[in-house]
Q: What sequence folds into this?
């Protein structure tokens, strides 16, 4: 049986440039896994995300989805159905003139009947709080609304693997909380997910974390393990949770603080 998702010694060099975007990355993902890939801007995260879904083809190595290779144009159609990506800049993925047509665009390729498509669109409009905006133009939405629509686009397609590239960037706290809750809901349903970010606080609930520096994977482990590696994390361009940073500045000894609740408990000791 073919393995679910594999990166086999994957490298990518930008055309016409000596710069290597991704260098010899190896990864195997089991179904239902939530993987976080952390790194600073320019570390290669977004390039790797595009390699994972077939938008870029490796210069060397293989990206395999259930045994299908992104290097094979004939197999890409299947891969696009199994792997969905939510871009860091949602405007890059919008193609339709209204919010409801945007959600319907991808669903129409699932050979559903018109009533079934209407039902799916209405469900996603409701789930993501976009019903009142269904006739609005996607590019006219606020930053948070665009991010919600980009998630609704992918959620409606029900891919086996979802990639999210900096999904909380430039959002207000309320929208961040809502999007995090929606992605956590996906995880509880067994959705496979890879989250690309520089902020550890966003992905403390991940099954595993990989750290990228200059296109290479330099560390693998559980999110909590990074909390005890503050010096290394900062050198890698990773932002530690605010509570961890405050505890460090206050010189709090004892168990590593990961969140506000643990910080308050440490201060009361």
A:
């Amino acid at each position: 049986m073919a393995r679910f998702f594999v990166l086999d010694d994957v490298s990518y060099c930008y055309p016409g440039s000596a710069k290597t975007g991704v260098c010899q990355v190896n990864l195997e993902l089991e179904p239902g896994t939530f993987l976080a890939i952390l790194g600073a801007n320019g570390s290669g995260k977004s390039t790797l995300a595009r390699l994972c879904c077939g938008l870029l083809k490796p210069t060397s190595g293989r990206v395999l989805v259930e045994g299908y290779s992104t290097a094979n144009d004939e197999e890409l159609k299947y891969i696009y159905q199994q792997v969905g990506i939510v871009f860091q800049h949602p405007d890059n993925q919008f193609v339709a003139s209204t919010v409801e047509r945007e959600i319907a665009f991808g669903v129409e390729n699932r050979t559903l009947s018109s009533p079934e498509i209407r039902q799916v669109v209405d469900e996603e409009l409701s789930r993501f709080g976009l019903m009142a905006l269904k006739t609005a133009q996607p590019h006219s939405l606020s930053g948070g609304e665009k991010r919600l629509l980009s998630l609704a686009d992918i959620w409606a397609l029900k891919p086996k693997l979802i990639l999210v590239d900096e999904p909380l960037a430039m959002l207000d706290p309320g929208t961040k909380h809502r999007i995090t809750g929606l992605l956590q809901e996906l995880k509880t349903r067994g959705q496979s997910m890879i989250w690309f970010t520089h902020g550890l606080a966003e992905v403390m609930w991940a099954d595993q974390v990989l750290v990228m520096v200059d296109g290479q994977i330099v560390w693998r482990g559980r999110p909590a393990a990074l909390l005890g590696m503050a010096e290394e994390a900062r050198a890698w361009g990773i932002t530690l949770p605010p509570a961890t940073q405050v505890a460090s500045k206050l010189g709090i000894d004892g168990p590593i603080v990961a969140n506000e609740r643990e910080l308050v408990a440490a201060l009361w000791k």
